[in-house]
Structure formats: C-alpha cells, structure tokens
C-alpha cells in the first residue's frame, strides 16, 4: 500500500512504497541517513538526518545501490553537496586512491563530474536527485535491469519535493526543473534581446554533443504509463555532460551538430516540446530534452500541481482571430491542452464570449485541493461545450474542413492536400462516395446556400494526379528505417479501411508495403 504521506502524489495501483524498511547494521543505517539528508531536495528532510525514516525512497534507494565504503566515500564531500573535488583531493579526504571508487559511483549515477575549472581537470560532485541522479540512473540500462524500482523512485523524486514548493515557483521555473523553449522558426527575427530562448544560441556555446535515451520515456514504460512513445535517443547532452554520460556507461553516444539538429527537427514534426535544463547557473545548460506531454516529468508536474509557471516559456502563443478559421489542428497537437475549440463564437448580438481564465497560484491560496490529478485526460479535451464548427463535427473523418478550404482559397492546394491526408489518406475515394453531411450542417446554408465543400475536396484530391501536386508523407520510425521482422502486422481486407490502416502503419515505420 502507499503510505499516507505520499497519497497525494501516488494515485494508481502501479505504485508501491514500503511502510517499513529494515537495515540490520545500525552504523550503516545512520551513514545512509546522513547521505540521504545531504542529497535530498525534500524541504522537510534536507540537512535533517533524524527526519528521514528507513521507508523514505531517499533512504532505501541508497541502501540498495551503495556499499558502506561507497557511502562513507560520498560523505567525505562533507555538508556541501555541490563542492567539486579532483581525485587527489578525494584521495586525501578518504586516505585512499580515489579514482576507481569515484568512477564506480559515477557508473551508478550517484556522482557526477565536469571540467569547469582553469586546469580543465575532472572534478567530482554529488548531483541532485532531479534533474540529476534520477535521470542518469534511468539512462543506465544495466542498472535498471537490476533495480527496476528506480522507476518508482524517479516518479517520487520528480514530484514529492516539488509539490511542496510548486505554487511558489516564479514564471519560467526560477532555477527549478526544466524550461520550455519554443520552436525557433516561430520566434520573430527581431527578438534578439532574448536569444537565450533559441536552441541555436545554446548549441553554439558548446563543441561536444551526445544523444542519450530519454529517462522519462523509460520510466513510464517500466511503470506501464505514458503514451507509449519509444525509448530512443531523443535527449541531447552538451559539453561536459556529453562526456559524463558516454564515459560512465549511460545509454548515450557522441553526435555531431548536424545529427543534433536532425533530432530537433524530427522532434518538432512529432509535436514534442523543447526544454532546456534550468538549474545550472547563468549562461549554462547541460542538455536539451524533446518532451512528450504524456511522459515528461517536468510537464507532468506543471499540469498536476496546476502551476504553469514551472515550465513557462518567455513566449506566448496568440491567435489572430482575423486569420484563424478554427480548423482545430493547433488544438489537436497542443501538448498540454492549452488551446480549445469554441472560443471564436459570438452571441447573436455580435458580442464576443468571454471564457474563464484558469486560477493561478499567485492569486489564491494553493494546495492539493487545487491540483489536477486528471491532467492527462483533461489535456485531451480540446473543445468547449459550445462545440466546434458544425461541418467538422458532422464529418465522419473529422476533417479540418475550414482549414483546407481556406488553403484552397489562397491557392495552397498541396498544403490543403497534406492537411486532409492527416486524417484521410484516400480523399479522392471518399470524395466520390461522400454523403456530404458537412454541407447539410454548413451554417452558410441558413443564409443562402452551403459551401460546396465536397467539390472543393474533390478538386484538391485531384492534385494527386499531377506529379508536382502529389503528397507522399515521410515514412518510417522517427529516427528512420522500419521496425524489424519481429513486429508482425496483419491487415485484413483491401478496401479503404485496410488501405488506410496500411498507410498509417507504414507512416509510423511499422510496416513495409
């Protein structure tokens, strides 16, 4: 069962935390408690060994991973977790040759190193749990095979300490967790004053990069949660962090600048959110993540605690109501459900409808009663009760009718075709047998005649007959190629349904036709 202290944070039957946890060696128990108090971010336990029970995840994880000698070794960092020591200094403090011991603990992800010093020598320090050891442990495949309970620990470490302070976090994160960076091409070229909001700014500061397996995706896979995204090399480490991950046996590999840019472009196509580390001091990051809202712990905490400041970008998206045709595509891809359909409606007298804004923690008293434990489901609600456009709602394929008609009106026929094929890979076939429910519901028909939606769709679909107008989507996994022969798919029937299934399977790299 889940102890009462954690019940606000652990709310499904996949989680297990011990009510009691016994250690026979009392000296070892006290040493581990001291080390846990040194590392933890939990305000109730940080620097207070007596406040840490054996059942705390901070305690039992260290007991599972470290020998007594390793615990004593780490305690020689004294009370300053972030102090950086070279091998000679560690040897002096521990009265032993220290390199092998330090490197061994690095491979367990409980020590970190960098070379940020005039001598450019390797200096070791104790990282935080999150962002820090939690991620590094999840990136270490062999360690996870031996200790899958690390996934539950990471869930705990990314939520429980943060939950106590989430409502006090200033806009942009204030040095806590991650910070969202927008898609760079969406930033106005004149916005030079905020160049640190551009990925290129950060990449150009470093000359060493590594791609590493996403720790959040791995955690969610082990816990049976998330959206089923594949564990692949979505995360990018820069500078000394790239060296640390590769050299200490994490699931990471060095990469070129071009490879990194390719990953970032693929992430944008997949609708992932760029985030940079937010706690490494002014003018410095250690990595860039490409996050899915269904798996990312940083986005999860913002949504669960209902505190958007935690990951807010310096940029805000705004809808130009004069250009928006309410096709709904931005709503469908918004990772946190911030955009909703139905906001463009007006009353019969022409007055605009005012929609209620979300409560914010800087305006009212905050706590667990204000949290949103249904954040995953709520983020999928993309329409106010007032509804979306009648034509889109009536279409059995839920096509973005307004979107492709608007593009056709501008002569953007191929883009209109691409939009249609996101939801209907066979527009010409469906156009020929369409019963035009969209036209029956078209509100223009209450004035004179409905828009000839089906004829416009047929015209757009006919562009496929011309080579220059044909749209063939990219096929294969996000990182290229197709899944191996061990993945078997059988499609029964060669009608429109079967062909559509083959189309989407091939597009995701699950089938070669």
Shape: elongated
> Going across the major beta sheet, what is the strand order?
3-7-8-5-4-6
Amino- and carboxy-terminal Cα gap: 48 Å
Count of the domains: 4
Average of pLDDT: 85
Tally of contiguous helical segments: 23
Largest sheet: 6 strands, antiparallel
Roughly what percent helix? 25-40%
Q: Compute the number of strand runs.
A: 8
Low-confidence segments: 189-194
User: What would you report as the Rg, rounded to the nearest angstrom?
Assistant: 26 Å
Helix- and strand-based class?
alpha+beta
Tell me the strand percentage band.
5-15%
Task: Explain what the structure shows.
Helix content is 36%, strand content 6%. With 513 residues, the protein is an alpha+beta fold. The chain folds into 4 domains: 4-163, no CATH class; 166-311, no CATH class; 389-472, Alpha-helical ferredoxin (Fumarate Reductase Iron-sulfur Protein, Chain B, domain 2), CATH 1.10.1060.10; 474-513, no CATH class. It has a 6-stranded antiparallel sheet. A two-stranded antiparallel ribbon has the order 1-2. α1 packs across α3 (68-75) and α18 (401-409) packs across α22 (453-461). The longest helix has 14 residues, at 26-39. The protein is elongated, with a radius of gyration of 26 Å. The two termini are 48 Å apart.
């Amino acid at each position: 069962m889940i102890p009462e202290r954690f019940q606000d944070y652990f709310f499904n039957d996949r989680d297990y935390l011990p009510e009691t946890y016994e250690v026979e060696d009392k000296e070892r128990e006290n040493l581990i408690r001291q080390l846990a108090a040194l590392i933890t971010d939990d305000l109730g336990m940080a620097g207070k060994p007596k406040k840490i029970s054996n059942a705390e995840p901070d305690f039992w994880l260290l007991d599972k991973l470290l020998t007594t000698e390793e615990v004593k070794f780490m305690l020689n960092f004294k009370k300053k977790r972030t102090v950086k020591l070279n091998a000679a200094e560690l040897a002096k403090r521990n009265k032993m040759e220290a390199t092998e011991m330090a490197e061994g603990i690095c491979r367990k992800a409980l020590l970190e190193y960098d070379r940020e010093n005039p001598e450019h020598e390797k200096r070791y320090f104790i990282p935080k749990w999150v962002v820090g050891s939690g991620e590094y442990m999840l990136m270490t495949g062999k360690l996870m095979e031996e200790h899958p309970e690390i996934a539950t620990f990471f869930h705990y470490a990314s939520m429980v300490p943060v939950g106590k302070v989430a409502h006090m976090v200033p806009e942009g994160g204030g040095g806590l967790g991650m910070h969202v960076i927008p898609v760079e091409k969406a930033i106005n070229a004149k916005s030079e004053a905020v160049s640190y909001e551009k990925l290129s700014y950060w990449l150009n500061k470093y000359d060493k990069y590594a791609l590493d397996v996403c720790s959040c995706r791995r955690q969610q896979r082990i816990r049976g949660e998330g959206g089923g995204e594949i564990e692949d090399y979505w995360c990018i480490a820069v500078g000394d962090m790239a060296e640390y991950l590769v050299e200490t046996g994490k699931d990471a590999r060095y990469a070129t600048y071009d490879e990194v840019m390719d990953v970032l472009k693929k992430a944008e196509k997949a609708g992932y959110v760029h985030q940079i580390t937010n706690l490494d001091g002014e003018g410095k990051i250690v990595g860039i993540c490409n996050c899915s809202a269904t798996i990312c712990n940083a986005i999860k905490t913002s949504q669960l605690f209902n505190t958007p400041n935690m990951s807010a970008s310096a940029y805000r998206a705004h809808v130009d109501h004069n250009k928006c045709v309410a096709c709904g595509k931005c709503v469908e891809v918004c990772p946190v459900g911030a955009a909703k359909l139905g906001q463009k409606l007006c009353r019969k007298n022409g007055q605009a409808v005012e929609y209620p804004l979300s409560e914010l923690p800087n305006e009212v008293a905050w706590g667990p009663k204000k949290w949103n434990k249904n954040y995953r489901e709520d983020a999928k609600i993309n329409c106010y009760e007032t509804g979306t456009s009648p034509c889109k709602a009536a279409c059995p394929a839920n096509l973005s009718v307004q979107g492709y008609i608007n593009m056709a009106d501008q002569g953007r026929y191929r883009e209109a075709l691409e939009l249609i094929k996101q939801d209907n890979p066979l527009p010409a076939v469906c156009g020929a047998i369409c019963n035009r429910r969209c036209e029956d519901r078209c509100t223009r028909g209450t004035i004179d005649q409905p828009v000839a939606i089906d004829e416009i769709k047929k015209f757009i679909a006919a562009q496929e007959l011309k080579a220059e107008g044909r749209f063939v989507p990219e096929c294969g996994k996000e990182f290229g190629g197709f899944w191996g022969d061990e993945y078997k798919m059988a499609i029964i029937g060669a009608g429109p349904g079967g062909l559509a299934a083959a189309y989407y399977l091939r597009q995701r790299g699950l089938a070669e036709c």
